[in-house]
Amino acid sequence: MTAKSKKIRAAILGASGYTGAELVRLLVRHPNVEIVLMTADRKAGQPIDTVYPHLTGLGLPDLIAVSDVEWPGLELDVIFCALPHATSQEIIKGILHETGHGFIDEMIIERPADYANAIQGSVKVIDLSADFRLRDIDVYTKWYSEYHQAAELQKEAVYGLTEHYREDIKKARLVACPGCYPTAALLTLIPLLKDKKICKDGIIIDAKSGVSGAGRSLREANLFTEVSEAMHPYAIAAHRHSPEIEQELSRAYGEDLMVTFTPHLVPMNRGELETIYVNMADGQTIADLRESLSKVYEDEPFVHLVGEDVIPATRHVRGSNQCLIGVYADRVPGRAILVVAIDNLIKGSSGQAIQNMNIMFGLKETLSLEQAPLFP
Amino acid sequence: MTAKSKKIRAAILGASGYTGAELVRLLVRHPNVEIVLMTADRKAGQPIDTVYPHLTGLGLPDLIAVSDVEWPGLELDVIFCALPHATSQEIIKGILHETGHGFIDEMIIERPADYANAIQGSVKVIDLSADFRLRDIDVYTKWYSEYHQAAELQKEAVYGLTEHYREDIKKARLVACPGCYPTAALLTLIPLLKDKKICKDGIIIDAKSGVSGAGRSLREANLFTEVSEAMHPYAIAAHRHSPEIEQELSRAYGEDLMVTFTPHLVPMNRGELETIYVNMADGQTIADLRESLSKVYEDEPFVHLVGEDVIPATRHVRGSNQCLIGVYADRVPGRAILVVAIDNLIKGSSGQAIQNMNIMFGLKETLSLEQAPLFP
Amino acid sequence: MTAKSKKIRAAILGASGYTGAELVRLLVRHPNVEIVLMTADRKAGQPIDTVYPHLTGLGLPDLIAVSDVEWPGLELDVIFCALPHATSQEIIKGILHETGHGFIDEMIIERPADYANAIQGSVKVIDLSADFRLRDIDVYTKWYSEYHQAAELQKEAVYGLTEHYREDIKKARLVACPGCYPTAALLTLIPLLKDKKICKDGIIIDAKSGVSGAGRSLREANLFTEVSEAMHPYAIAAHRHSPEIEQELSRAYGEDLMVTFTPHLVPMNRGELETIYVNMADGQTIADLRESLSKVYEDEPFVHLVGEDVIPATRHVRGSNQCLIGVYADRVPGRAILVVAIDNLIKGSSGQAIQNMNIMFGLKETLSLEQAPLFP
Amino acid sequence: MTAKSKKIRAAILGASGYTGAELVRLLVRHPNVEIVLMTADRKAGQPIDTVYPHLTGLGLPDLIAVSDVEWPGLELDVIFCALPHATSQEIIKGILHETGHGFIDEMIIERPADYANAIQGSVKVIDLSADFRLRDIDVYTKWYSEYHQAAELQKEAVYGLTEHYREDIKKARLVACPGCYPTAALLTLIPLLKDKKICKDGIIIDAKSGVSGAGRSLREANLFTEVSEAMHPYAIAAHRHSPEIEQELSRAYGEDLMVTFTPHLVPMNRGELETIYVNMADGQTIADLRESLSKVYEDEPFVHLVGEDVIPATRHVRGSNQCLIGVYADRVPGRAILVVAIDNLIKGSSGQAIQNMNIMFGLKETLSLEQAPLFP
Fold first, then answer.
1. What pTM does this model have?
2. ipTM for this prediction
3. Domain with residues A181-344, CATH architecture
4. Which residues pair with D149 in a beta bridge?
5. Cβ C374–B374 below 8 Å, yes or no?
6. How far is B229 from chain C (nearest CA, A)?
7. Cβ D267–B225 below 8 Å, yes or no?
């Protein structure tokens, strides 16, 4: 932390999206954090409470455009980047000053040298976009149809799946937080694949998400009248979270693998549930799978294997950083059904980001994330 | 039809459940049907509009207890049986007078001889319970933990999946309407298995249903506060619709097969969507699968293969007897993803029952089922 | 009807909004109507089923831009105008050819003379916008901040509150259908004010509406995530339906009066409920109020006074053209509480429009509107 | 606090209702509180996480029946009583040992002397039922049809509307927390009536509540399918919160007054919004009303007058102890419209109870209540 303040001086870039707002909501009660900067280009100049009335009266700075930030003097310790992909990599590249000249679009950052200089040294970056999640730049460009502008930085980026990369996160300067769907899938499957409890082939992830995952952007498909009393799958065999899931599962298993992944939109604000179908490895039983997960997560504050007669539900985790995992025998011999539930905006996004921040700064990992789920 | 009336004289047993109410709602506008009897033991003596205010002003008879029915004189042509399983078989056994003595629990029917006599001859029975769906009585007793009291009748019962048993339904005296989940799964999979377009192994049905599927019974799990803003799977590897699905799929394929089937509760009143994962047979393509379905359903009024760039959604069928099926290639080679959507209370229950009645009585199959879906 | 067809040849202008889609959904089953034209400028060239998949397979014409309509040859009998206000009056003015030259913005109608000519004579217009509802042009311009371009037509427009203007509607060439909020309020209050059962002062209308009332336009406030699990009033003391309500209530009472009117947005797709607080006139009782309403509506197919122990709910009318009215004594002496429920898209909009069409063409008034409410 | 523990030792009676669960959820994070007892007669013997899976892993005691409590040794400092009315008074009477013999129904408390003795002295009781809210026992018996068994205790009970009875609460042994509807109405109206800014006659409170206000009891009316996509008023002119509102408003004004109060059920889990219609006193303006409220609440942490161009919405307070109040001019001269929003389970119930506890124990009033609202 800087001398100027005993608190961690934090910036939130992209504070007007739901992910940004959730960072604000959680961080504002963090005993060691002070939010000193919030950007939102389209809402620049507005106080946060006109954009998000639920964030009224919290003593927060007004929203400003990234290009208007007076970086010198901010003495930032951590930057949460909740910007769209592609924009994210450009901004972060500037922040971590891989180069000192002209690397940032003038439309976005007017004085890149200033702010790179201002924040050099100790600043840490926690990215919530997809820009640094994929280790292979070619995979990134294939799925995102974008030239990656910060390929060098990708090499040092740590994949922020907290429970599995904790040691790397401690030392990281740049953490790429996982997508919401990958978070749930990976927490469930990594231990089982690492331990060879399940086969690498035939993994099917049927995912269901609340609407907040689609953000606050204006799309007909997200209108109340289109979503309420309705449900449907989308991006069948084409969702960008697929390569991210496969990357980490392949790494866990030690061989390349592919998964079937189908997301669905469900009429609820928050919550994500994945029903995962797997083939057990020869000789493995449900008890073996349970043991594998139990061993990894028994001391974790946020990831829990539920009892054999309990089924995870999104209402059990709503508004919290909790992740619940259940393991069940299928009627078809040799097959298992896994169920995992998280709050997509918390463990699936902003909560995990803060959990990572706590680790990066040597703080107690649960700080500002202890709130029990909100039910009903 | 009787001489007394040019209209089909219909009875609805169990009119106080959602399925019963939906039968009433649809039949009341049927040009050839007159509802002359509605039973509901717990609501006996009440007019239907105190139980279901949306059914006010329709000139319907009051609800009565089954045991109070004066069967002689009713001159019924068709009986819709929307009773719980086990109760259903007992009542129907009496109606179709397999025996003439003491076969009916005195608690339910006080004068079985009377009513068996009254309705003998031409009466047809359309059962919406699970009692006559399973061809193998042993399978029934295994899954329902009940001794089946009308095993002989099971032999003549026709499985009422309209589009696939139309010829049998025409001649049937007793039709056992499929469950809601089986209806969606079977309409999608039967043609593909018959044509050997997909493998019999590895079929996974991830099903999602609105809450009306749980009926109007008082259970904590169905309270608004428990369901809203939430979702979860239930009856994992244990749902009673599994053997029904397997029975019909095995029959279609010509060999016994098992499926993985997981239902989920979704916060909406109506609607059912199934995402089905299959392995294509060697050499088969998505185009082959589409052709197989197209061939079977191209002239059907209620079952439709959607375009390749369309994804079925429950809002596309809400309040209608429509069934929409989509076929998509998975990223994993050799695998396909099928999506099917119905309204669980209509095509999945009462609508299909009426469709069957239309067939049984030689009427135009779409009568009282033409209403386009209600959206938004 | 034209010689060309035994059916009424109908056009729907603005078919891509929810109101337009609801007209389509209802009219497509009308035995005497054929939809021969549907316009939607932003969706021009698309089949209706890509815009509204629930309207698939109905044999409907593709959507076209108003400016591309080949009016000669259409031989229209009725035009439903579901366009935004201001646009509506311009189009209708052309249709009813008040002038034959240049009266229509070239951006909207390219060949006004053609189409005015084509449709002259018998064509009837049913407008669902606000353009012809207000009898006083000055009131219109005050509330809508628009110069009214068809003031002469206003004089002949009939206010389409069916139950109270039936005789005028029979002879009308142009019917201005009431707004959804006014429909519910007026059906409840007009008889009571006409009969001097209640005081003209102190009428308070607390209105609650589902989200479909806001249409399908892209506004942040209508996103699922903003509306679900939430509610709030809007346009307090400033809603444009206020002058419409006051106009008709003043007319009914015989003196100018003002009302307090507050609309609220409720997380449901359809449905509108108004809780209305009134002072009873001296000596009047709840029984007197009930009698006043009963007398007017006892033979109406769509408007009903509910029993004293029944409370109207939106679920009792969902998906139907029904209107339910309840009358209750307040604890405060001399005061009464009225409750009225409708489906805002049907009795509050498209259903009432079709009811008016039936009257204008001498048809049975309930045609295509008989469907019982959809519940659950 | 006791010597045994530095934390306040708290009991929650009736922990299996939503109010009880919300007390648990909030208190479990309170730095100065330890939950040492939770009762729930129908769920006795169960761990809280089988009843409320969202409260898993919090180190809480199992639920027990009230009659099985071993009171000696518990050394309770505070008891939250979230029991039904009538039961509540009986239990509390025992706890505060107005008599020492046979005063408690043997069915409920088996060893009343034991526990009265055990907890005598310093224990404080915070009642969330209606039993001690009404100062006039006759009014209680009239509205609750129950003989009041603890009339003497009523005299010392302090009405727990925090912002208006803070000084009394500090010294109270027994606090009767207000109902949810009264909390919202009174916070809005008390300052205006005290300052004579509004007339005492003609106050109309149109209230809307989420379903959690109905508790977790099994009633058909609270099923998802009955509530979703629907809304309706209930208990018109007959809700038990009416006398409570009138009692406090009369007291504020200095004269007896009556209000019109109509609650509505809205399809959301949480949240309560009241739209209140008032006549301004002669010469008063909206600015005067705003000043009156601003003066009272400007330093309050939980009650806020919103800006003139902001309208309170339940989503602005969901999951928090906040109360937002708006004041607007009606179009009708001399009238004002007030809007107030709270979370019914927090500021309307458990949150206010904890706020009162903080005051009773000399703690910072906002402890465990600081969480910003959960949105979306």
1. 0.94
2. 0.93
3. 2-Layer Sandwich (3.30)
4. none
5. yes
6. 8
7. no
